[in-house]
Amino acid sequence: MKNANDDKNSEMCRMRVIQSMNAIKASEKACEKMKTEEGKTNCESFMKTLKDHEKEMMQGIPPIPPVPPLPPSTQNQPK
């Protein structure tokens, strides 16, 4: 029979995986997999922090300037 400590350890591991995937995109569904209320609360808090941080990061990034069109190529044209 599993004990509460195993659940807590597996949730810590799961949180690390979520953190490394963050990375990709914060998903609300990730928190649904937590087995304990404490785990769900921690996960939701982490996701909120992640999204807030993501917004701050996006605000600090200047817009990407448009790329000018390339001049017509003189190579690879039929002779």
Brief digest:
With 79 residues, this protein is mainly alpha-helical. The chain is 59% helix and 0% strand.
- Strand % is under 5%
Supply Rg.
23 Å
Number of strands: 0
Number of domains: 1
The secondary-structure class comes to mainly alpha
Tell me the distance between the termini.
79 Å
What pattern of helices and strands is seen along the backbone? HHH
Helix content: 55-70%
Shape category: elongated
Number of helices: 3
Low-confidence stretches: none
Summarize model confidence as the mean pLDDT. 72
What does the main sheet amount to?
none
Q: Can you tag this structure with a few keywords?
A:
mainly alpha, 3 helices, 59% helix
Care to describe what's here?
By secondary structure, this protein is an all-alpha fold. It has one domain. It is 59% helix and 0% strand. The protein contains three helices and no strands. The longest helix has 24 residues. The termini are far apart.
Outline the fold blueprint.
Layout: H1 4-22, H2 29-32, H3 37-60
